[in-house]
Amino acid sequence: MATLSGQTIANRYTSLLKTASDSTLSATLTAVEDGAGNDSDLSIATDKVKVSTTLGIGVTPAVGKLQINAGSSQAITVDNGNASFLVGKGSQYAFCIGDCNPVGTVGGGTSSTSVQANENYISSNPAANSNSGAVLIMNGASAGSGAIGIGQDTVSTGFIHFGDADKKFKFESRNLAQAFDIHANSETLFSVNGSNKRIGIGENVTDPSNTLEIRETGTAKTNTDILAITNKTNAADMDGTTGSILFNQYYYDASTPAVETAARISAGSELDWTSDATTRDAYLSFSTTENGSDPAERMRITSNGYVGINSTSPSSALYVTGDITCTGSVTAANVISPSDKYKLEEYFYQKPGINADLANTSEATRVIANRNFEIQGDGNTSALCTFDSQRSGILLTTDTTDNDEMFIMPHVDTNQSAWHNIGWGTDDEVVWECAVTLHGTAATAKNTVRYVAGLGGDATIDGHDSSYLDAEHNHSQFVDAAYFYYDSDNAAATDMLRYQSTTTTWHFVYSVNGTDYVTNLGLVVTEGATYKFKIEIGSDRTVKAYINGVQYGLTTISGVGDTGVNVNGAVNISSGSSHVITVDGTDATTQIVVGDIITNNAGAAWGTVTAVTSATSITITAVQTKEFPDDSDIYIYGRVAATTTTSGSALHTGRHFVPQIGVTTRTGAARYLTVHYQKINRNLV
Q1: Average pLDDT for residues 460-483, to the nearest whole number?
Q2: How far apart are CA 47 and CA 94, in angstroms?
Q3: pTM score
Q4: Is residue 573 within 8 Å of 622, Cβ to Cβ?
Q5: 497 lies in the same domain as 369
Q6: What residues pair up with 617 in beta bridges, in sequence order?
Q7: Is residue 543 part of a domain?
Q8: What are the pLDDT digits (tens) for 404-444?
């Protein structure tokens, strides 16, 4: 092999590294010397090097354009003190970038070079081809504390950090079953079904049948806790602390549907939990949403197993606040009636008659009459009270003269019934109930007729009043009262509620020392329907009203008619359209609630209130097209309650009522009402 000397280069290789087609280059280049014959580096002054075939370093090239065989040394090193980039280190490191001295001698070091353990570098182990390879990402800390930052330059060791605070991590999996799985202990513990948008958690749940499915193999005849929910709150004062599962539901609102809370299941602490096991009593409660309000508790299971329905402190195995309807049988070893209550229950096994018939000396006349209740009212006779031929109960039939009426109420003669002497007072926690059925024909049941059911009377006669709501009386007749009513007419001053905004629904009125509160219950009167009315007067003298087991809220805004709220500026409304009305005078938020029907002074409806935005602004949906001048008064005849569970205001103390059920005809035709029962109870003392 030839030696390339400086002179030889000058005399013979005038085209060295310039052309690949020089046929005179027949020798093999084995060394490079300078002009003095000394070994020298090969320096190329041009800007580029071109190899037309292949180039081998430490090996005869067989694959690729560049092939390097460095043996146990690194093949390529870029060194700036510590190797910052290297390729090849025998079977240890095939690739490394960063502070690359993960083992001795790497980066040009010798056998005595210290290992730069845990520096910042990324490296790969070529032993991966032997099923034991690895990729290391170190972050200047102890082994196992590497980090990856994507879109983030400050990364905590041991983390993969995606983006900044305002960025998101998005994993795009395939639209297939098992699009993304996590395996451990020879099982699939987490599986994403991209096709059905479902997730499986647990033991090989690779085919979840619901949005989230959890499976675990338990042990027969023992409990297996599959899901745990923990509230980590702890404090000295902990009673009433709860952890919940919240259920939400979207509601329809055309182009802008939104989500709201629907229900909640909660577990709560009954005591202040401490390390003492005897303090760790818990309850489970169920809450539901009504009228868009926050979920209210409906049922509770206490730590001792007592169940309360509409009660948060049940005192027995089953404690129910409110009515119970059972379609099957109720079996009990003992039935105990409250011993602290007067209770008058009448299912009318005998027909009530007029008082004169009960006092008749003829036994044949006297014994058929009911001993606790009698008939009152204009045009009444005992013959107009009969047994209903189609259902249990008595049928009240008015005579055919305008304003004839039939009322059932306790006997007025103290010699006939001891119940006359019992005062049903506002301080006695009275509960009154009845069930009535209307006539099956719409015209007869709903036209030119008035129904009254509840507690009335004149409070000036302490517990011994015989008054009833005569056909000539309206809602303001009694100083104190609480009753349901329906009146198809609203034009005359003697109608139950003149100018009432609707004559198709049940109303409720209660009076507190002469101040009336009238609520439009919104329940449409239906021919042939049976109505179970109930009135409760609580220990605080507040009133609750129920129909067919459902509570109906009562208004706490007093007064009927003029609200004191006036239109501020002329208003033009169009039937069916929504209108914002600016008002002045009385604060609108104290007089008007959503659902109220506002009218003029003659009861002609403007529309239904859909929002009370402020003291000076309301929104209505108009029911007529009309212009109202500036300062027009806004009237309400029959208000809407704030919620369906709002109790009425407290009744006046020391007042007494008379239970009464009646039907009145407003025209020269008979009107009918079937009464199934009337029940009333009060505190014994």
Answers
A1: 70
A2: 30
A3: 0.56
A4: yes
A5: yes
A6: 582, 614
A7: no
A8: 999 998 877 666 666 666 778 888 899 999 999 999 999 99
Mark whether 459 and 400 lie in a shared domain: yes
Residue with tokens 């029962």: 677
CA 70 vs. chain centroid, Å, equals: 71
633-636 and 561-567 strand pairing: antiparallel
- Per-residue DSSP letter, 440: S
Tokens of 215: 């499976």
Looking at the fold, whether 205 and 292 belong to one and the same domain comes out as: no
pLDDT digits (tens, 9 = 90+) for 472-491: 777 778 888 999 999 998 88
Residue 285 lies in a domain: yes
Q: Are 302 and 270 in contact (CB under 8 A)?
A: yes
pLDDT surpassing 50 at residue 300: yes
Q: Are strands 578-585 and 66-68 parallel, antiparallel or unpaired?
A: unpaired
Cβ atoms 579, 619 nearer than 8 A: yes
CATH number of the CATH domain containing 471: 2.60.120
Do residues 582 and 617 share a domain?
A: yes
Euclidean distance between CA atoms 331 and 550, whole angstroms: 25
Please check whether residues 45 and 80 belong to one and the same domain. no
Distances (CA, A) of 325 to 150, 306, 329, 432, 546: 64, 20, 11, 17, 14
Strands (E), 33-101: 55-57, 66-68, 76-79, 83-87, 95-98
3-class secondary structure, 77:
strand
Residue 473 and residue 416 share a domain:
yes
Whether residue 464 is contained in a domain is answered as yes
What Cα–Cα distance (Å) separates residue 185 from each residue in 7, 182, 203, 212? 74, 11, 10, 22
Q: Is residue 583 part of a domain?
A: yes
How many Cβ atoms from other residues are within 10 Å of residue 256's Cβ?
6
Do 361 and 313 fall within a single domain?
Answer: no
CB neighbour list of residue 349: distance below 8 Å, 6 or more residues apart = none
How many domains does one find in the chain?
A: 6
Residues 306, 259 within the same domain: yes
**473-478: long-range contacts (C-beta < 8 A, 24 or more apart)?**
474/498, 475/509, 475/511, 475/516, 475/518, 475/560, 476/511, 476/516, 478/511
Residue that has been written with the tokens 């025209």 in this structure: 667
Residue numbers of the domain that contains 194? 180-215
Give Dmax over CA atoms of the chain in angstroms. 163
CB 129 within 8 Å of CB 113: no
- DSSP secondary structure, 119-132, as one string: -EEEEE-GGGGGT-
Q: Which of 50, 68, 86 is the last residue of a domain?
A: 50
